[in-house]
Amino acid sequence: xxxxxxxxxxxxxxxxxxxxxxxxxxxxxxxxxxxxxxxxxxxxxxxxxxxxxxxxxxxxxxxxxxxxxxxxxxxxxxxxxxxxxxxxxxxxxxxxxxxxxxxxxxxxxxxxxxxxxxxxxxxxxxxxxxxxxxxxxxxxxxxxxxxxxxxxxxxxxxxxxxxxxxxxxxxxxxxxxxxxxxxxxxxxxxxxxxxxxxxxxxxxxxxxxxxxxxxxxxxxxxxxxxxxxxxxxxxxxxxxxxxxxxxxxxxxxxxxxxxxxxxxxxxxxxxxxxxxxxxxxxxxxxxxxxxxxxxxxxxxxxxxxxxxxxxxxxxxxxxxxxxxxxxxxxxxxxxxxxxxxxxxxxxxxxxxxxxxxxxxxxxxxxxxxxxxxxxxxxxxxxxxxxxxxxxxxxxxxxxxxxxxxxxxxxxxxxxxxxxxxxxxxxxxxxxxxxxxxxxxxxxxxxxxxxxxxxxxxxxxxxxxxxxxxxxxxxxxxxxxxxxxxxxxxxxxxxxxxxxxxxxxxxxxxxxxxxxxxxxxxxxxxxxxxxxxxxxxxxxxxxxxxxxxxxxxxxxxxxxxxxxxxxxxxxxxxxxxxxxxxxxxxxxxxxxxxxxxxxxxxxxxxxxxxxxxxxxxxxxxxxxxxxxxxxxxxxxxxxxxxxxx
Length: 644
What we know:
Layout: H1 3-19, E1 30-32, E2 41-44, H2 49-52, H3 56-70, E3 74-80, E4 83-88, H4 90-100, E5 115-119, H5 131-149, E6 153-160, H6 165-177, H7 183-186, H8 190-213, H9 216-225, H10 229-248, H11 252-257, H12 260-268, H13 270-276, H14 279-292, H15 296-320, E7 326-329, H16 330-333, H17 338-347, E8 351-352, E9 358-361, E10 369-373, H18 381-396, E11 400-406, H19 410-422, E12 431-436, E13 439-440, H20 456-474, H21 482-502, E14 510-511, H22 514-517, H23 525-542, H24 558-580, H25 583-603, H26 612-634
Parallel strand pairs: 5-6, 5-11, 6-7, 11-12, 13-14
Antiparallel strand pairs: 1-2, 2-4, 3-4, 8-9, 9-10
């Protein structure tokens, strides 16, 4: 029984003895005491007013006296307007420390015997991984670690989007413009080479499109469109909004380019042009048809360029320290789900239109009618996802599945989950979309096809470079072997990157400022690492000194009590973060614990403590905090160096 349960049980017994009333433990509201008041835990007494026939502050006073007298773990109390603030005894905290300070796995829960699948990353093979992927990957990996710490067996998967028109764009550009260039010849990381040609396709397409806009056909299409007054109103509103945005950024050139015809050709007609007029668009679509028909030459080029991308992906994953148990490929799964559609039609879950297409009516769930199979019998993304979910259940039998996907796909997953429920799938109630906000740059949104992304590899190199500069300035590791120095620098740089991403609550859209992310001060990964390094330094110095038992140190300083209270709460915090799939909870906990330890380290002597008992206690407290920080940061995928 933990201290919260002890207090709740004491309140239950106190209410019965003092007022002759029966309440359940669930009716006893308990929380951590606010910092401005003395106490460790606070009990809300307002719900007992009717039962006791007294004012809440009177009840709080009487319950406080009862708990102080009858519950040995309670040392004293105070009352603030019906809130009973309880101070846990120093003896309790000392015994708690003795029970856990040597446990490096403190925070790990016992096995639950339940399996969870987590899908994350899931990139396209037309470009390298970028900043947006990094948030996805880090959230996915940390969710896996949290679930494992909470006692679940976890299967890590991804589905690689290795087919479609976007893939054909990079293939076609390489075929037309590369002159046989390879990663080896160009000296470029293999996935970056493929991404180069995806960007080049867009560049050449824009050149072609701009020329067409000035042609007789382009002028005629625009003239016909602008005859509609509503169209012009939309265009003028867009121009006004975009001019304001550009002016705020001081971009005078962009303001000059914002005109109604710009709106039409950029926002309205671009896809139509690609599908109906563009020679590059026609060639890309023809390549896709050849791929689907199994053309040997097209498949050979597709395999070659995909393999380049996979090599690059693997290298980036290795840098980030993430792995997968199984990888699914869209080229193998895009036809899945047709049997599911047939099953749904037979059950009356789906319906068929006159043209043969299959749909589901979800209007009663405040969704809409959703297409599941086209009239020509070809599948859509939803069809594929239905089949893939069933395949994964057959492969692993996990009744809980987590999809780590950006919030632009919220509606898609609402529909997917609702369909699987109506089909009666055994895992349907265990589906969860870990939706996260997009990552913006100070200069605006990232666009892969325009080459305005921050590549994952470049970002990693940047934070490593900054970590190296800071290490050289401090010269704290200059006496180590070069290989060890590099390992420490890598751990510091990746901690800066991972912590910056994961400290933000997943659902929040975030602005990524590269300069801020590599700041080695403040609420950063290296700041937390530095607390651990301090602890390891203290423990090394104390290693050969005899330690007295900490039992003769019974009067704790307030900061010592606060630190122990934080450590005590860690296992339940892990469980909560795992259920909510929110790594930011752990990131902010680690920062707060590190900050308090830095304060403790500055204000109190450890190795030269006033008594041997105080020294032994503080060493054990330091060791406990070190284990907690190391385990907590590991849940974020962050390593803790011995020196920095």
